[in-house]
Amino acid sequence: MRNSIATLLPLTLGHNMSEAQLALFPQPDYTPELIMDPHSYVYLMASPTDPTLVKIGTTCNLARRQAELGCRVLWYQAGGRHYERWLHRRFASSRLPRTEWFRLDADIAAYFRLRLQGPMAA
What we know:
With 122 residues, this protein is an alpha+beta fold. The chain is built from six helices and four strands; from the N terminus they run H-H-H-E-E-H-E-H-E-H. The protein has one domain (5-16, 33-117). A hairpin with a 6-residue loop joins strand 1 (41-46) and strand 2.
């Protein structure tokens, strides 16, 4: 059975986790100074044509990027290329070769669901 965004990622746009919530997650190989670039965003977008594909990328203008791709934004937060690259490495087994597109799987869904809802969410 193919996973779909509707079943795996019931996300809402624009939620950022608090420092307390972020502290509860294992620390990856980046530092907050590298990811918290106030001039860019790391995002997860849904493919407009294939419900099993998501894009992990970075941009300085989220609205423009969304319009360019014709995708729906599922999640975003302030961040830079270091965080984007870490996410690409983290989900390398689901990545389509030489792209920023990933086959949606339970691992990706769980990671972003936690990023969105956080352990302290109601």
